[in-house]
Amino acid sequence: MEIMDPPKGPRMILARLRIGDYNSALSEEIERATTKRNKDHKTGRFLLQSCIGKWNLPIGSLEVLRTEERAPYLSWIEGVWSNSPLPGISIGHSGDWAVCALIEAGWWIGIDAEPANRGIQENAFDMMASGEELAWLHENPDQAIRIWTAKEAIQKAERLGMNLNPRQINIDDYEVHSFLHDDLMVSVAWRPAGVDPRTPEDDLLDATRKRMREKPDFTVGCATTRGNC
Length: 229
Description:
The chain is α+β, with helices and mostly antiparallel strands. It has one domain (about 1-215): CATH 3.90.470.20. It is about 25% helix and about 25% strand. It has helices at about 35-55, 130-140, 145-155, 200-215, and strands at about 1-5, 10-20, 60-65, 70-75, 90-95, 95-105, 105-115, 175-180, 185-190. A 4-stranded antiparallel beta sheet has the order 1-2-6-5, with helices on one face. A 3-stranded antiparallel beta sheet has the order 7-9-8. It has a two-stranded antiparallel sheet with strand order 3-4. A hairpin with a 7-residue loop joins strand 1 and strand 2. The chain starts with a strand and ends in a 15-residue tail after the last helix.
């Protein structure tokens, strides 16, 4: 794992790892995936696992879930009985590399990277920009890869993916930072966190807290009351 320098802002970890043969407890089974797709996925999840370890979180107590829009997020596994806030995550793959970002709780993050020398045909510009921005891109085609990765990072930070039309994204409206790291153009975007999907354990923990506030003598099981076991 190679750590990349993060931009100024909330605490975050940015890292990359060359695509290879890896296994991770966080990997998913992807039906009918090509060999390359599986390698990309497993490398990304192994990199995420490594970043979680560097964040000093217990990997055995965590899993990766997805929103309805397929955006990944960290969650405590069933049975841990914790709803302590967890960092936001983002994973990307391009060419020979997987990239990963973690950001402190209270924020969502998106990361995207492409080979810096990758060319984008001008006839594809209208898929990512419109109006004045499109005209500017035609005048500055060397900036296309930066705009492309910035908008992909924003889509991930919003947890919407392609449900957020890149032509409608105004980069100036977002906290997004693009930089060169060796042969990669990397873009990172972040925003204040929204609400993760709730789990049954979240509901039970909240109900337990409410009962404890309402009734100070309320107990849960023998382990919570001295002398019961």
